[in-house]
């Protein structure tokens, strides 16, 4: 379970940082925030939310290790 949480956290962190890099620089157009038309206009907010989710997943994985 710990490894799954870490993997999901890594994917969320990768997608969130990729989305922010694209929105701020216009480069690296890969990721979920640019592909979904539903998110048009909210890409920065979704990218920040993905980074926060990644931090929460890493914290949850770390707490699983302590038990």
**What is the C-alpha radius of gyration, as a whole number of Å?**
13 Å
The coarse overall form would be elongated
Structural class based on helices, strands and sheet pairing: mainly alpha
**SSE arrangement, N to C:** HHH
Q: Mind summarizing the main beta sheet?
A: none
User: Low-confidence spans: pLDDT under 50, at least 5 residues?
Assistant: none
Provide the helix percentage.
over 70%
Q: Roughly what is the average pLDDT, rounded to an integer? A: 88
Number of helices: 3
**What amount of the residues lies in strands?**
under 5%
Account of the protein in words:
The chain is mainly α. The chain contains 3 helices and no strands. The protein has helices at 2-25, 32-35, 43-66. Helix 1 (2-25) packs antiparallel against helix 3. The model has no long low-confidence stretch (mean pLDDT 88).
Short summary:
This protein has 67 residues and is mainly alpha-helical.
Write the layout of secondary structure elements.
Elements: H1 2-25, H2 32-35, H3 43-66
Helix pairs in contact: 1-3
Characteristic terms for this protein:
67 residues; mainly alpha; 3 helices; 78% helix
